[in-house]
Design brief:
By secondary structure, the chain is of the alpha/beta class. It contains nine helices and seven strands. The protein has two domains: 153 residues, Alpha/beta knot; 53 residues, Orthogonal Bundle (Trp Operon Repressor, Chain A), CATH 1.10.1270. Adenine binds next to β5.
């Protein structure tokens, strides 16, 4: 799968994705990442990318012509792809959206900054763009959102996780609650033991205990999920 990220801060995106599982997925060719500096399409000698908002107000707005030029350059070089624009006003990202994105061959992420991108940019793309938020809080820009989405989508791609990982029962899988607590060695740590049932070797009992833990935790921490 190919990801292209359009950003004013390429180094914010490149470095984190070169480590760990996503770094390995790139080395193995399961994930291809292109990071593109929007400023290269800025206007004039100063490579201006933003301006003050029409109608007044604080902050700066990214220019639609600049962002559209940056997108056109990626499209010309790597094909059209589905466009995802990160804004706090977007549709909330969740596991289901990650699964849907994982079926695409090519995603192009546009990271807004400041007060976001001139609304005409998204409007001009019609059905080709989805505006996405990673949660009900405001970030300084879309870069961290792009990292979150790339991570969540990449781990769903065939071969990216080892077998041991991919077999994992996951929180947010359809119809599931939050994951049960996990334990490993040492068996006794500073007076803290491990629940006896996990040492019993009785797999039916272990599964029942984990289901109960899952249910209790979901009701306590995420009553909104428990109701679904
Ligand atoms: N840009 C600023 N805040 C954001 C959020 N919560 N999600 C996605 N992009 C953003």
């Amino acid at each position: 799968m190919r990801f292209d990220v359009l950003t004013l801060f390429p180094e914010m995106v490149r470095a984190p994705l070169s480590a760990s599982i996503i770094g390995r997925a790139q080395a193995a060719g399961q994930v291809t990442l292109g990071v593109h500096d929007i400023r290269e399409h800025g206007i004039g000698r100063h490579r201006t990318v933003d301006d003050t908002p029409y109608g007044g107000g604080s902050g700066m707005v990214m220019r639609c012509d600049v962002v559209a030029d940056a997108l056109a350059a990626v499209t010309t070089a790597h094909g059209p792809g589905k466009v995802v624009l990160f804004e706090p006003s977007g549709r909330p990202f969740d596991q289901r959206m990650a699964e849907r994105f994982a079926t695409e061959a090519h995603l192009v992420f546009v990271c807004g900054h400041y007060e976001g991108v001139d609304a005409r940019f998204a409007a001009s793309l019609g059905d080709r763009v989805e505006v996405v938020s990673i949660g009900d809080f405001v970030l300084t820009g879309g870069e961290y959102a792009a990292l979150v989405v790339i991570d969540a989508v990449s781990r769903l791609l065939p071969g990216v996780l080892g077998n041991a990982d991919s077999a994992r029962v996951e929180s947010f899988a359809p119809g599931r609650g939050l994951e049960f607590p996990q334990y490993t060695r040492p068996r006794d740590w500073e007076g803290w033991g491990v629940p006896e049932v996990l040492l019993s070797g009785n797999h039916a009992k272990i599964e029942a205990w984990r289901d109960a833990q899952s249910e209790e935790r979901t009701a306590r921490v995420r009553p909104d999920l428990a109701r679904r």
